[in-house]
Amino acid sequence: MQAKENFSFEYCRETADWLQARTKQRPRIAIICGSGLGLLADSLKNQESFRYTDIPNFPHSTVTGHDGHLIFGELQGKLCVCMKGRFHMYEGYPLWKVTFPIRVFKLLGIEILLVTNAAGALAESFHIGDLMIIRDHINLLGLAGQNPLLGPNEERFGPRFPALSDAYDGKIRALAMEVARDLGYTSFVKEGVYCMVGGPNFESIAEARLLHLLGADAVGMSTAAEVVVARHCGLRVFGVSLITNQVTKEYDTQEHIDHHEVLEVSQRRASTLRMLLTELVGRLEWNSLSNSDPEDNQTAYQNGT
Ligand SMILES: O=P(O)(O)O[C@H]1O[C@H](CO)[C@@H](O)[C@H]1O
Ligand code: HPA
Fold first, then answer.
1. What digits encode the pLDDT tens for the residues 155-176?
2. 229: left (phi over 0), alpha (psi -120 to 50) or beta
3. How many angstroms separate the alpha carbon of residue 302 from the centre of ligand 1?
4. Three-class SS of residue 193?
5. Which of 21, 59, 251, 259 has its CA 20 to 30 A from that of 81?
6. Residues 55-87: pLDDT tens digits?
7. Is 35 tagged catalytic?
Protein backbone atom coordinates (compact mmCIF):
# COMPACT_ATOMS: atom_id res chain seq x y z
CA MET A 1 0.00 0.00 0.00
CA GLN A 2 1.37 3.42 -0.89
CA ALA A 3 2.21 6.01 1.73
CA LYS A 4 -0.77 8.35 1.41
CA GLU A 5 1.17 11.59 1.90
CA ASN A 6 3.34 10.77 -1.13
CA PHE A 7 0.35 10.01 -3.31
CA SER A 8 -1.32 13.35 -2.89
CA PHE A 9 -2.48 15.78 -5.52
CA GLU A 10 -0.20 18.37 -3.90
CA TYR A 11 2.84 16.12 -4.35
CA CYS A 12 2.14 15.93 -8.12
CA ARG A 13 1.36 19.65 -8.20
CA GLU A 14 4.73 20.46 -6.63
CA THR A 15 6.53 18.61 -9.44
CA ALA A 16 4.38 20.15 -12.18
CA ASP A 17 4.90 23.66 -10.74
CA TRP A 18 8.67 23.09 -10.57
CA LEU A 19 8.72 22.13 -14.27
CA GLN A 20 6.42 24.96 -15.36
CA ALA A 21 8.64 27.45 -13.56
CA ARG A 22 11.59 26.25 -15.66
CA THR A 23 10.09 25.94 -19.13
CA LYS A 24 7.67 28.11 -21.06
CA GLN A 25 6.70 25.15 -23.24
CA ARG A 26 3.13 23.95 -22.62
CA PRO A 27 2.82 20.61 -24.46
CA ARG A 28 -0.43 18.70 -24.99
CA ILE A 29 1.26 15.44 -26.00
CA ALA A 30 3.44 13.23 -23.77
CA ILE A 31 5.56 10.36 -25.04
CA ILE A 32 7.09 7.54 -23.00
CA CYS A 33 10.12 5.89 -24.62
CA GLY A 34 10.48 2.17 -23.91
CA SER A 35 13.69 0.15 -23.56
CA GLY A 36 16.26 1.36 -26.09
CA LEU A 37 13.73 3.65 -27.77
CA GLY A 38 15.10 7.01 -26.60
CA LEU A 39 15.91 8.03 -30.18
CA LEU A 40 12.43 9.52 -30.43
CA ALA A 41 13.20 11.98 -27.65
CA ASP A 42 16.42 12.98 -29.42
CA SER A 43 14.47 14.16 -32.46
CA LEU A 44 12.58 16.89 -30.57
CA LYS A 45 13.46 20.42 -31.70
CA ASN A 46 14.10 23.33 -29.30
CA GLN A 47 14.80 20.89 -26.50
CA GLU A 48 14.70 21.73 -22.84
CA SER A 49 15.91 18.75 -20.87
CA PHE A 50 15.68 17.91 -17.16
CA ARG A 51 17.50 15.06 -15.44
CA TYR A 52 15.12 12.87 -13.42
CA THR A 53 17.54 13.21 -10.52
CA ASP A 54 16.96 17.00 -10.51
CA ILE A 55 13.15 16.93 -10.68
CA PRO A 56 11.51 17.02 -7.25
CA ASN A 57 9.66 13.81 -6.30
CA PHE A 58 10.60 12.07 -9.57
CA PRO A 59 11.84 8.47 -9.40
CA HIS A 60 15.27 7.71 -10.89
CA SER A 61 16.00 5.41 -13.85
CA THR A 62 18.00 2.33 -12.92
CA VAL A 63 17.68 0.16 -16.05
CA THR A 64 20.09 0.09 -19.02
CA GLY A 65 18.37 1.58 -22.05
CA HIS A 66 16.38 4.04 -19.89
CA ASP A 67 18.37 7.24 -19.91
CA GLY A 68 16.61 9.32 -17.24
CA HIS A 69 15.71 12.65 -18.86
CA LEU A 70 12.44 14.48 -19.26
CA ILE A 71 12.65 16.41 -22.52
CA PHE A 72 10.36 19.19 -23.71
CA GLY A 73 10.46 20.12 -27.37
CA GLU A 74 8.73 20.21 -30.74
CA LEU A 75 7.88 17.28 -32.96
CA GLN A 76 6.35 18.15 -36.34
CA GLY A 77 5.61 21.60 -34.99
CA LYS A 78 3.70 20.25 -31.98
CA LEU A 79 4.92 20.73 -28.43
CA CYS A 80 5.62 17.42 -26.69
CA VAL A 81 7.19 16.22 -23.48
CA CYS A 82 9.13 13.00 -23.70
CA MET A 83 10.21 10.58 -20.99
CA LYS A 84 13.55 9.22 -22.11
CA GLY A 85 13.41 6.31 -19.74
CA ARG A 86 10.54 4.93 -17.70
CA PHE A 87 10.13 3.21 -14.34
CA HIS A 88 9.23 -0.39 -13.58
CA MET A 89 7.93 -2.14 -10.50
CA TYR A 90 10.84 -4.60 -10.55
CA GLU A 91 13.21 -1.68 -9.87
CA GLY A 92 11.65 -1.60 -6.42
CA TYR A 93 9.18 1.22 -7.01
CA PRO A 94 5.56 0.89 -5.90
CA LEU A 95 3.17 1.23 -8.82
CA TRP A 96 1.96 4.67 -7.72
CA LYS A 97 5.56 5.85 -8.12
CA VAL A 98 6.08 4.02 -11.43
CA THR A 99 3.10 5.97 -12.76
CA PHE A 100 3.75 9.25 -10.94
CA PRO A 101 4.86 11.11 -14.13
CA ILE A 102 1.44 10.48 -15.73
CA ARG A 103 -0.34 12.57 -13.11
CA VAL A 104 2.32 15.24 -13.43
CA PHE A 105 1.63 15.23 -17.19
CA LYS A 106 -2.07 15.72 -16.49
CA LEU A 107 -1.27 18.77 -14.37
CA LEU A 108 1.03 20.09 -17.10
CA GLY A 109 -1.94 20.12 -19.47
CA ILE A 110 -1.21 16.94 -21.41
CA GLU A 111 -4.21 15.52 -23.29
CA ILE A 112 -2.69 12.63 -25.27
CA LEU A 113 -0.22 10.01 -24.03
CA LEU A 114 1.81 8.04 -26.57
CA VAL A 115 3.40 5.06 -24.90
CA THR A 116 6.03 2.74 -26.36
CA ASN A 117 7.71 -0.40 -25.11
CA ALA A 118 9.86 -3.34 -26.06
CA ALA A 119 7.93 -6.61 -25.85
CA GLY A 120 8.23 -10.32 -26.51
CA ALA A 121 5.94 -11.96 -29.09
CA LEU A 122 3.50 -14.63 -27.98
CA ALA A 123 1.46 -14.60 -31.22
CA GLU A 124 2.96 -16.91 -33.86
CA SER A 125 2.22 -14.37 -36.58
CA PHE A 126 4.49 -11.75 -34.98
CA HIS A 127 8.13 -11.39 -35.99
CA ILE A 128 11.12 -9.72 -34.43
CA GLY A 129 11.12 -6.07 -35.51
CA ASP A 130 7.33 -5.87 -35.93
CA LEU A 131 5.43 -2.96 -34.44
CA MET A 132 2.28 -3.90 -32.52
CA ILE A 133 -0.28 -1.16 -32.10
CA ILE A 134 -1.83 -1.96 -28.74
CA ARG A 135 -5.53 -2.78 -29.15
CA ASP A 136 -6.03 -3.66 -25.49
CA HIS A 137 -4.11 -4.96 -22.52
CA ILE A 138 -4.16 -7.62 -19.85
CA ASN A 139 -2.95 -6.04 -16.64
CA LEU A 140 -1.92 -9.22 -14.89
CA LEU A 141 -0.65 -7.33 -11.86
CA GLY A 142 -3.89 -5.38 -11.62
CA LEU A 143 -5.98 -8.56 -11.79
CA ALA A 144 -3.87 -9.90 -8.92
CA GLY A 145 -4.47 -6.80 -6.78
CA GLN A 146 -1.36 -4.76 -7.64
CA ASN A 147 -2.91 -1.62 -9.07
CA PRO A 148 -1.50 1.92 -9.14
CA LEU A 149 -4.97 3.19 -8.13
CA LEU A 150 -5.00 1.22 -4.86
CA GLY A 151 -5.71 3.31 -1.79
CA PRO A 152 -7.89 6.38 -1.25
CA ASN A 153 -9.15 7.72 -4.57
CA GLU A 154 -8.02 11.22 -5.57
CA GLU A 155 -11.24 12.60 -7.11
CA ARG A 156 -9.38 15.57 -8.59
CA PHE A 157 -7.71 13.10 -10.95
CA GLY A 158 -10.61 10.75 -11.68
CA PRO A 159 -13.35 8.41 -10.46
CA ARG A 160 -13.03 5.58 -7.94
CA PHE A 161 -14.09 2.96 -10.49
CA PRO A 162 -12.74 3.89 -13.92
CA ALA A 163 -13.87 1.92 -16.97
CA LEU A 164 -11.16 0.55 -19.24
CA SER A 165 -13.20 -0.84 -22.11
CA ASP A 166 -11.92 1.93 -24.39
CA ALA A 167 -8.42 2.30 -22.95
CA TYR A 168 -6.59 2.61 -26.29
CA ASP A 169 -8.08 5.38 -28.38
CA GLY A 170 -9.85 4.03 -31.48
CA LYS A 171 -9.43 7.19 -33.55
CA ILE A 172 -5.71 7.46 -32.90
CA ARG A 173 -5.24 3.75 -33.66
CA ALA A 174 -7.05 4.20 -36.97
CA LEU A 175 -4.87 7.21 -37.77
CA ALA A 176 -1.74 5.20 -36.96
CA MET A 177 -2.86 2.44 -39.33
CA GLU A 178 -3.36 5.07 -42.03
CA VAL A 179 0.15 6.40 -41.35
CA ALA A 180 1.54 2.85 -41.52
CA ARG A 181 -0.13 2.38 -44.92
CA ASP A 182 1.25 5.66 -46.24
CA LEU A 183 4.77 4.81 -45.06
CA GLY A 184 4.59 1.35 -46.65
CA TYR A 185 4.83 -0.29 -43.22
CA THR A 186 1.75 -2.54 -43.38
CA SER A 187 3.72 -5.78 -43.60
CA PHE A 188 5.17 -5.27 -40.12
CA VAL A 189 2.64 -3.06 -38.33
CA LYS A 190 0.10 -5.26 -36.54
CA GLU A 191 -2.52 -4.80 -33.84
CA GLY A 192 -2.69 -6.87 -30.68
CA VAL A 193 -3.11 -7.35 -26.97
CA TYR A 194 -0.23 -6.47 -24.62
CA CYS A 195 0.14 -8.27 -21.31
CA MET A 196 1.98 -6.60 -18.43
CA VAL A 197 3.80 -8.89 -16.02
CA GLY A 198 5.91 -7.89 -13.03
CA GLY A 199 9.32 -9.14 -14.13
CA PRO A 200 12.26 -8.91 -13.85
CA ASN A 201 12.60 -12.54 -14.94
CA PHE A 202 11.46 -13.42 -18.43
CA GLU A 203 8.63 -15.95 -18.70
CA SER A 204 8.90 -19.66 -18.05
CA ILE A 205 7.57 -21.89 -20.84
CA ALA A 206 4.40 -22.69 -18.88
CA GLU A 207 3.85 -18.97 -18.16
CA ALA A 208 4.34 -18.08 -21.81
CA ARG A 209 1.78 -20.72 -22.84
CA LEU A 210 -0.65 -19.45 -20.20
CA LEU A 211 -0.37 -15.82 -21.32
CA HIS A 212 -0.91 -16.84 -24.93
CA LEU A 213 -3.97 -18.90 -23.95
CA LEU A 214 -5.30 -15.88 -22.05
CA GLY A 215 -5.33 -13.88 -25.28
CA ALA A 216 -2.07 -11.94 -25.07
CA ASP A 217 -0.14 -11.33 -28.30
CA ALA A 218 2.89 -9.72 -26.66
CA VAL A 219 4.30 -9.49 -23.15
CA GLY A 220 6.35 -6.90 -21.30
CA MET A 221 6.94 -5.47 -17.84
CA SER A 222 5.49 -1.98 -18.24
CA THR A 223 2.79 0.14 -19.88
CA ALA A 224 -0.52 -1.23 -18.53
CA ALA A 225 -0.12 0.48 -15.14
CA GLU A 226 0.74 3.77 -16.87
CA VAL A 227 -2.32 3.42 -19.08
CA VAL A 228 -4.60 2.71 -16.11
CA VAL A 229 -3.47 5.95 -14.45
CA ALA A 230 -3.65 7.90 -17.72
CA ARG A 231 -7.23 6.78 -18.37
CA HIS A 232 -8.19 7.42 -14.75
CA CYS A 233 -7.28 11.09 -15.24
CA GLY A 234 -8.87 11.32 -18.70
CA LEU A 235 -5.85 11.25 -21.00
CA ARG A 236 -6.30 9.72 -24.44
CA VAL A 237 -3.85 6.89 -24.98
CA PHE A 238 -2.05 5.39 -27.95
CA GLY A 239 0.40 2.53 -27.39
CA VAL A 240 2.85 0.67 -29.56
CA SER A 241 5.12 -2.28 -28.79
CA LEU A 242 8.30 -3.03 -30.66
CA ILE A 243 8.62 -6.81 -30.86
CA THR A 244 12.18 -7.54 -29.78
CA ASN A 245 12.02 -11.31 -29.34
CA GLN A 246 9.89 -14.40 -29.68
CA VAL A 247 8.82 -15.72 -26.30
CA THR A 248 9.75 -19.39 -26.18
CA LYS A 249 6.74 -21.66 -25.77
CA GLU A 250 8.51 -24.97 -26.48
CA TYR A 251 10.68 -26.97 -24.07
CA ASP A 252 13.11 -28.35 -26.64
CA THR A 253 14.78 -25.05 -27.51
CA GLN A 254 18.17 -23.58 -26.72
CA GLU A 255 16.94 -19.97 -27.02
CA HIS A 256 17.42 -17.73 -24.00
CA ILE A 257 16.31 -14.13 -24.21
CA ASP A 258 18.27 -11.47 -22.36
CA HIS A 259 17.98 -7.70 -21.98
CA HIS A 260 20.98 -7.05 -24.28
CA GLU A 261 19.14 -8.75 -27.11
CA VAL A 262 16.05 -6.67 -26.35
CA LEU A 263 18.13 -3.50 -26.50
CA GLU A 264 19.95 -4.56 -29.65
CA VAL A 265 16.68 -5.07 -31.54
CA SER A 266 14.98 -1.97 -30.15
CA GLN A 267 17.95 0.22 -31.05
CA ARG A 268 18.08 -1.31 -34.52
CA ARG A 269 14.36 -0.66 -35.12
CA ALA A 270 14.06 2.61 -33.17
CA SER A 271 14.23 4.74 -36.31
CA THR A 272 11.24 2.89 -37.81
CA LEU A 273 9.19 3.43 -34.69
CA ARG A 274 10.32 7.05 -34.62
CA MET A 275 9.13 7.51 -38.19
CA LEU A 276 5.67 6.09 -37.41
CA LEU A 277 5.23 8.20 -34.27
CA THR A 278 6.63 11.38 -35.81
CA GLU A 279 4.21 11.13 -38.71
CA LEU A 280 1.37 10.27 -36.34
CA VAL A 281 2.08 13.30 -34.14
CA GLY A 282 2.16 15.45 -37.27
CA ARG A 283 -1.33 14.27 -38.20
CA LEU A 284 -2.91 14.53 -34.74
CA GLU A 285 -5.49 17.25 -35.16
CA TRP A 286 -7.62 18.00 -32.16
CA ASN A 287 -10.57 19.04 -34.32
CA SER A 288 -10.73 15.76 -36.16
CA LEU A 289 -10.44 13.65 -33.02
CA SER A 290 -13.95 13.78 -31.65
CA ASN A 291 -14.38 13.94 -27.87
CA SER A 292 -10.99 15.63 -27.90
CA ASP A 293 -12.26 17.94 -25.20
CA PRO A 294 -10.79 16.42 -22.02
CA GLU A 295 -14.02 17.24 -20.16
CA ASP A 296 -16.09 15.29 -22.68
CA ASN A 297 -13.61 12.48 -22.72
CA GLN A 298 -13.65 12.19 -18.96
CA THR A 299 -17.44 12.22 -18.85
CA ALA A 300 -17.75 9.54 -21.50
CA TYR A 301 -15.11 7.56 -19.71
CA GLN A 302 -16.80 7.81 -16.32
CA ASN A 303 -20.04 6.64 -17.89
CA GLY A 304 -18.21 3.73 -19.43
CA THR A 305 -19.45 4.70 -22.90
O1 LIG B 1 8.67 -2.07 -21.27
P2 LIG B 1 10.00 -1.47 -21.53
O3 LIG B 1 10.33 -0.39 -20.56
O4 LIG B 1 10.18 -1.04 -22.96
O5 LIG B 1 11.10 -2.60 -21.26
C6 LIG B 1 10.99 -3.98 -21.59
O7 LIG B 1 12.33 -4.44 -21.71
C8 LIG B 1 12.80 -4.93 -20.42
C9 LIG B 1 13.25 -6.35 -20.59
O10 LIG B 1 14.27 -6.48 -21.52
C11 LIG B 1 11.61 -4.84 -19.48
O12 LIG B 1 11.70 -3.69 -18.69
C13 LIG B 1 10.45 -4.79 -20.43
O14 LIG B 1 9.31 -4.20 -19.86
O1 HPA C 1 9.91 -11.60 -23.68
C2 HPA C 1 9.70 -10.64 -22.90
N3 HPA C 1 9.04 -10.81 -21.72
C4 HPA C 1 8.80 -9.79 -20.87
N5 HPA C 1 9.22 -8.56 -21.11
C6 HPA C 1 9.87 -8.32 -22.25
N7 HPA C 1 10.37 -7.18 -22.73
C8 HPA C 1 10.94 -7.44 -23.91
N9 HPA C 1 10.82 -8.76 -24.22
C10 HPA C 1 10.15 -9.32 -23.18
1. 999 999 999 999 999 999 999 9
2. alpha
3. 31
4. strand
5. 259
6. 999 999 898 887 999 999 999 999 999 999 999
7. yes
